[in-house]
Design brief:
Shape: globular
Largest sheet: 7 strands, mixed
Number of strands: 28
Strand order of the largest sheet: 3-7-6-4-5-10-9
Number of helices: 19
Family: Belongs to the phosphohexose mutase family.
GO cellular component, one term: cytosol
GO biological process, one term: glucose metabolic process
Bound molecules: alpha-D-glucose-1-phosphate-6-vanadate, cobalt (II) ion
Structural class: alpha+beta
Strand content: 15-25%
Radius of gyration: 25 Å
Cofactor: Mg(2+)
Protein name: phosphoglucomutase (alpha-D-glucose-1,6-bisphosphate-dependent)
Distance between the termini: 53 Å
């Protein structure tokens, strides 16, 4: 502690009401651990007589530190192997750099929310974040019990409690545990992921950081609800579900959904993948909506997700897929990812692509979901997401936006009142009820659509199924065949060279050129100018768009923690209903072959086969 100097912060008195019995309990723990004199927890002489014991001073340690390389955030927060985050000051540096990047009025005496997906290292990380927040003058932290709160719930709580922002301790769909990944995201005051203007500043500050400000208080007990107070700094441990559930009850018609879930001819199953939605599934689907308790599987959040990869897709949610495609499978199946913002929707022996899912939700929202009763304001998708949503926007005559990959690009459009429903092909769907994609919301949206379609069906009458809804949609709008090939953890050098090679092809390409049976309409590296604030995001994915609307897109992932993950997105529009039943892989075969040969993927990466096909 020699190199550590202390400064003492004078704090203002608190009203009596905030002195709960829990406060005294925590103070007594505190005084057992540290002699009061050392902690300088003392009554202020200027305190009003009604609250003599309430005004105290807490110590702020200024700890010297040095910059650490590589703390640049990707598509969604900073993600690294957990071992890296556990290195000295790694997390603390980033958190302090964040405070150094925000205007003080955005957090001083303000309220921040703290949540996480329950993964390994979250408990330690929560204590570090709380102490640094207090050291930088934050007034209050609202933290989910046991540090648990899903990404969409953090966004909901920030908005409801009018907080200044919030932290999410999660590497989302990346695996967890001592050998795997950890991550941190910061969301701003309207609940949206911090824009690049902020994350770029944070990165800049990680390169020049020299001091961490932290308060000298004991660890907060995150296992019981209640408020702990030190001076005018409060930590409130909150139920991670209640604000979120209240919002869902306002968005959806719970009676309508309950009617469906209570039918004996409708069977529902939800796989929480031992991730954060385990904490939400029972209170929402079982307790509120009447689903049977055994309809929830893997419903207990675990630090290593039960050795699973909490990514709800056809590869990693295999158990659910097997149930849904098995003999006498349920009518409706869904799964969510590590932090609860992704979703996968399945019918009996039927997979709904996320690109179709958002389009179908948008097409049915007005009639099936009370929140959208006056109709959606506008629709948006990420660039690689299929054009199914574009067709709905056109038919409903709605404003439409195409943004780069990553949810942070939707927030400005929502705040400006231009956007209601949006999605990404990567199993992310959501709306302007919050500023994150929302897994449980998507499941409730689909249940609402199925319930609405079947609301007048008598027992014994055949119900409209998930597959029926999707096929009807295709018949009305046409089908956008879509597939994504992921090549995970390639050597970075080869992957980067491949992208350079493709950029070079783009620069030499000309409209009208023949690529096999396809004629090029244009090729580019996607660039987006935010229509609200004018900010520009460039190099967001190499696109080859053909005259019949078919597309091939190449990107490198910005969420991995090792090597480079190459993503190839392939799409082809099919208006002919007689061809809609085709298997997507078969329908897309010529375009997939073209995508592989055009990019020389095998030569650059040495990969014969993708790791994941969606
Ligand atoms: C991926 C997806 C992207 C999504 C992001 C965060 O990013 O492609 O659509 O927004 O993950 O999702 P990338 O850069 O790896 O392609 V989550 O559930 O990790 O918050
Ligand atoms: Co996620």
């Amino acid at each position: 502690m020699d190199s550590v100097f202390f400064s003492t912060l004078k704090l203002t008195p608190l009203p009596n009401a905030s002195f709960s019995s829990r406060h005294f309990a925590s103070l007594s723990v505190l005084s057992r651990k540290f002699p009061i004199s050392r902690l300088s927890v003392k009554a202020s002489s200027s305190a009003p007589s009604t609250s003599t014991a309430n005004s105290q001073t807490i110590k702020i340690k200024s700890m010297p530190t040095k910059p650490i390389e590589g703390q640049k955030t990707g598509t969604s927060g900073l993600r690294k192997k957990v071992k890296v985050f556990m290195e000295e000051n790694y997390l603390a540096n980033w958190i302090q750099a964040l405070f150094n990047s925000l205007p003080p009025e955005d957090y001083k005496d303000g309220v921040l929310v703290l949540g996480g997906d329950g993964r390994y290292f979250n408990r330690e990380a929560a204590q570090i974040i709380i102490k640094i927040a207090a050291g930088n003058g934050v007034g209050k932290i609202l933290v989910g019990k046991e540090g648990i709160m899903s990404t969409p719930a953090v966004s909901a709580v920030i908005r409801k409690q009018k907080a200044n922002g919030g932290f999410i301790m999660s590497a989302s769909h990346n695996p967890g545990g001592p050998e795997y990944d950890w991550g941190i995201k910061f969301n701003y005051s309207s609940g949206q992921p911090a824009p690049e203007t902020i994350t770029d500043k944070i990165y800049g500050n990680t390169l020049s950081i020299s001091e961490i400000k932290m308060v000298d208080i004991p660890d907060i007990d995150l296992s019981c609800l209640g408020v702990t107070t030190y001076g005018n700094f409060n930590v409130e441990v909150v139920d991670p579900v209640s604000d979120y559930l209240e919002l869902m009850e306002n968005v959806f018609d719970f009676q309508l959904i309950k009617g469906l879930l209570s039918r004996s001819d409708f069977r529902f199953t939800f796989d929480a993948m031992h991730a954060v939605t385990g904490a939400y599934a029972k209170p929402i689907f079982v307790d509120k909506l009447g689903a049977s308790p055994d309809s929830i599987s893997n419903g207990v959040p675990l630090e290593d997700f039960g050795h699973g990869h909490p990514d709800p897709n056809l590869t990693y949610a295999k158990d659910l897929v097997n149930i849904m495609y098995g003999v006498n499978g349920p009518d409706f199946g869904a799964a969510s990812d590590g932090d609860g913002d992704r979703n996968m929707i399945l019918g009996r022996s039927f997979f709904v692509t996320p690109s179709d899912s958002v389009a179908i939700i948008a097409a049915n929202a007005q009639e099936a979901i009370p929140y959208f009763q006056s109709g959606p304001k506008g629709l948006a998708r990420s660039m690689p997401t299929s054009g199914a949503l574009d067709c709905v926007a056109e038919k409903l005559n709605l404003p439409f936006f195409e943004v780069p990959t990553g949810w942070k690009f939707f927030g400005n459009l929502m705040d400006a009142g231009k956007l209601s429903i949006c999605g990404e092909e990567s199993f992310g769907t959501g709306s302007d009820h919050i500023r994150e994609k929302d897994g449980i919301w998507a499941v409730l949206a689909w249940l609402s659509i199925i319930a609405y379609r079947n609301k007048d069906k008598k027992p014994g009458e055949k119900l409209a199924s998930v597959a029926d809804v999707v096929k009807e949609h295709w018949a009305t709008y046409g089908r956008n065949f879509f597939s994504r090939y992921d090549y995970e953890e390639c050597e970075s050098e080869g992957a980067n060279k491949m992208i350079e090679y493709l950029r070079d092809l783009v620069s030499k390409s000309k409209a009208g050129e023949k690529y096999g049976n396809y004629a090029l309409q244009f090729a580019d590296d996607f660039s987006y100018t935010d229509p609200v604030d004018g900010s520009v995001a460039s190099k967001q994915g190499v696109r080859f768009v053909f005259t019949d609307g078919s597309r091939i897109i190449y990107r490198l992932s910005g969420t991995g923690s090792a090597g480079a993950t190459v993503r190839i997105y392939i799409e082809q529009f099919e208006p002919d209903v007689s061809k809609h039943e085709m298997d997507a892989q078969a329908a897309l075969k010529p375009l997939i072959d073209l995508a592989l040969s055009l990019s020389k993927l095998k030569d650059f990466t040495g990969r014969e086969k993708p790791t994941v096909i969606t």
